[in-house]
Amino acid sequence: MKKLLISASFLLYTTSVWCQSVEKNLPNIVLIFADDMGYGDLVSYGAVDLETPNLDKLAAQGMRFTNFEVAQAVCSASRAGILTGTYPNRIGLSGALNPHATIGLNPEEETLAELVKKAGDYRTAIFGKWHLGHLPPFLPTRQGFDEFLGLPYSNDMWKWTYDMQLATPETHAAKASYPELPILAADTVYRLISDMEGQNNLTTLYTEQAVRFIAENKDNPFFLYVPHSMPHVPLGVSDKFRGKSEQGLYGDVIMEIDWSVGEIMSSLDRHGLSDNTLVIFTSDNGPWLNFGNHAGSAGGLREGKATTYEGGQRVPCIMRWPGTIPPGTVTNKLSSTIDLLPTFAEILDVPLPKRRIDGVSILSVLKNQPGPGPRKEFYYYFQKNSLEAVRMDNWKLVLPHPSRSYEDLVPGMDGNFGPTRQVQTGMALYDLRRDPGERYDVKDTYPDIVTRLLELADSAREDLGDDITGVEGKNRRPPGQIN
């Protein structure tokens, strides 16, 4: 009798959730996240010598963002920001976690996958690079995702050097200590990658899994997250696209990612889901410029990955949602990856996480409503917790800090990395409306703007802290930790 009552209660619950999903006509959400793709790497953003017809079509049918900032310009931190709606330093994550890391995304943080489940019977999946902790408590299936197939961290975190020599303690001590590169299925090893042939098939593998997932879940709402491993070095591309681009291997890789987007869009069309699906395409940070012809383009923005200049932080972003996003629109309103979570919450009419977040809903931007956008300010943090710049509308104040620089140095070629240098920046004010390349310091011309932005920096330090000035911050939370 007790078992019968439990079964009846479960039936009532599942029926209620299903009815709630039908009544709300909940949209599907597809989030595609490239790795190290620069602002200038798509044709719709000015790329040359390659073709991106599927992403061009996505832009023509949706909205192209020209002022879209990542949470931080490096792998793990950027992913923490997009999945939780917070500055990653708020939740104790920075840099790029390696295979020896004992920390990860704290399970107490609410992810996009957990948020959508509050709206109804959502299915959730990630096919691609996770990079938020490779140990079991931190893996995607413990963080709201029903399915996971992909790499636990970056594709260069294996035993091979960038010139494809087996690492030794003398040639590359870190890589020599790394295990074989695993593809995980949930929390078990699906396959080990021991050579570039395995890397060449990653984009195809993720795409096939995404298409399968859409077909299997066409009758219920879903959240599909596809964080590609490419175009992070080492560059891998299938035979379908090798040699197809006039730009060389990097262009081939971009064209295969574009193909992947086309396969996903075709699957949505085939199952009659396109009109009720929000599709988002963006990148985790700007290009790794010292890899030369194996790196992307910042599209005229200054510097690249691992810097807080716009070349590191500003990325391409395209969104399509028929009936909500007007086709063929361009928005210059300031937005960020950390704004996706609260935007999804408003779309789905679910409460925000109980823990404090930093994003703001940009649903009004998606609808192309007139007037100023909801995001007015942005903090540029890097390293563990260093406040390197602040932004208010189109004014950006760069604060004194040590920085990587790629400028005036000859980059590497064909997979080999070139040099970078460390520089000490001074304080500088840039008007990004007139000077998106951050070349003309106008702090002496606009002292009142400098004063306001310094006040904003003080507010950021009080809240989140700042290693440069030695301020601890009042509202930081620890990452997940394995002792």
CA gyration radius, whole angstroms: 22 Å
Instruction: Give the low-pLDDT segments.
Output: 1-23
Shape: globular
Q: What is the mean predicted local confidence, pLDDT?
A: 95
Could you say what the CATH architecture of the largest domain is?
Answer: 3-Layer(aba) Sandwich
Helical stretch tally = 12
Protein name: Sulfatase
Keywords: Hydrolase, Signal
Pfam families: Sulfatase, Sulfatase_C
Organism: Negadavirga shengliensis
Write the layout of secondary structure elements.
Blueprint: H1 2-24, E1 28-34, H2 53-61, E2 63-65, E3 68-69, H3 75-84, E4 103-104, H4 112-117, E5 123-127, E6 147-150, H5 173-176, E7 181-185, E8 188-193, H6 196-200, H7 202-216, E9 222-227, H8 249-270, E10 277-283, H9 310-313, E11 317-320, E12 329-331, E13 335-336, H10 340-348, H11 363-366, E14 377-382, E15 386-392, E16 395-398, E17 401-405, E18 421-425, E19 428-431, H12 447-464, E20 480-481
Parallel strand pairs: 1-9, 1-10, 2-12, 3-13, 5-6, 5-9
Antiparallel strand pairs: 2-11, 4-20, 6-7, 7-8, 10-11, 14-15, 15-16, 16-19, 17-18
Family: Belongs to the sulfatase family.
InterPro entries: Alkaline_phosphatase_core_sf, Sulfatase, Sulfatase_N
Keywords: Hydrolase, Signal
Tell me what you see in this structure.
Belongs to the sulfatase family. Residues 1-19 form the signal peptide. Keywords: Hydrolase, Signal. This is Sulfatase. It comes from Negadavirga shengliensis. With 483 residues, this protein is of the alpha/beta class. The chain folds into 2 domains: 25-376, Alkaline Phosphatase, subunit A (3-Layer(aba) Sandwich); 379-481, Arylsulfatase, C-terminal domain (2-Layer Sandwich). The chain has helices spanning 2-24, 53-61, 75-84, 112-117, 173-176, 196-200, 202-216, 249-270, 310-313, 340-348, 363-366, 447-464; strands at residues 28-34, 63-65, 68-69, 103-104, 123-127, 147-150, 181-185, 188-193, 222-227, 277-283, 317-320, 329-331, 335-336, 377-382, 386-392, 395-398, 401-405, 421-425, 428-431, 480-481. The chain has a 10-stranded mixed β-sheet. Strand 14 and strand 15 (386-392) form a beta hairpin. Helix 7 packs parallel to helix 8. The longest helix is centred in the first third of the chain and has 23 residues, at 2-24.
